[in-house]
Each structure stands twice: as structure tokens, then as C-alpha cells.
Design goal:
This protein has 54 residues and is mostly helical. It contains four helices and no strands. The protein is flat, with a radius of gyration of 15 Å. It starts with 6 loop residues before the first helix and ends with a helix.
Length: 54
């Protein structure tokens, strides 16, 4: 992975690797309802903090 030293570097990394990121992403709809990742309440807290408290 490239050395990311700033927000601009990170944005550039995402732009350059968009296709690879999409290729390796997992859709939540494709996971089983009892998947450990879905059941982890940490993601609920992150979602609430980042998206509901804007």
C-alpha cells in the first residue's frame, strides 16, 4: 500500500483503487443473518456516530 500522509493522499489512493475495492467488497445482503460481522454491535455504534449524529 502506498504511503498515505494526508487526506489528499488517501483520496487519491481511493480513486486509483476504486475498481479493486469494489471487486473485493462484500455486500451485506450476501451475508447470512447470523454472520459474526453482522452481529457485532460495534458496527451499529460506528453507524450511529458517523451517520445519525451529523
Amino acid at each position: 500500500m502506498a504511503n498515505i500522509r494526508s487526506v489528499q493522499d488517501y483520496k487519491e489512493f481511493l480513486k486509483e483503487n476504486r475498481e479493486l475495492l469494489h471487486k473485493n467488497a462484500v455486500r451485506i445482503e450476501d451475508l447470512s443473518p447470523d454472520d459474526d460481522w453482522i452481529l457485532d454491535e460495534e458496527w451499529d455504534r460506528i453507524y450511529e456516530q458517523e451517520f445519525l449524529n451529523i
